[in-house]
Design a protein that fits this description.
The protein has one domain. With about 140 residues, the protein is an alpha/beta fold. The longest helix has 15 residues. It has a 3-stranded parallel sheet with strand order 1-2-4, with helices on both faces. A two-stranded antiparallel sheet has the order 3-5. It contains 6 helices and 7 strands.
């Protein structure tokens, strides 16, 4: 049923597209304006920070120190895109979920947490990482 409160739509996008924040905001606004009337619950899942280098290549080149593959948070978090998405989501009454703190400390973003490999390539999380984060996502969406 269209607009049913028991239904949810989850949207996300890769923040690395080569456009301006204003263009990003307009496109995101256009998308949410079409989706919002179709669901009782709209959730915007912010893009995860990208790895700075190919995780497999970096880790295999530093077998004794995964710390060599840690990126500075300021280098890999698309803060301005997160701000744009948060503002546009709020305009449509959508829940915005920022995953940045799940993957980064205040200053660093690792490719591993403990013995859990987070990234399968520079932008996609591993299946195991997504399963590990599932309780955080569920709590963020207040299911």
């Amino acid at each position: 049923m269209i607009g049913s409160p028991s239904r949810a739509a989850i949207v996300s996008g890769w923040s690395g597209y080569p456009n301006t924040d204003d263009e990003w905001a307009q496109g995101f606004d256009d998308t949410l304006s079409r989706l919002a009337p179709l669901t009782g619950r709209l959730i915007v899942l912010g893009d995860n920070p990208a790895a700075q280098d190919d995780p497999a290549g970096c880790l295999s080149g530093h077998l004794r120190s995964a710390a060599a593959c840690v990126a500075a948070r300021s280098d890999v978090v698309a803060a301005s895109r997160i701000d744009v998405e948060r503002r546009v989501a709020a305009r449509f009454g959508a829940t915005f979920v920022d995953t940045t703190d799940w993957l980064c400390t205040d200053t660093k973003c690792p490719v591993m947490i403990g013995n859990l490999l987070l990234y399968r390539d520079m932008t996609h999380l591993t299946t195991f990482a997504t399963l590990w984060f599932e309780p955080l996502l569920a709590a963020s969406m207040q299911w």
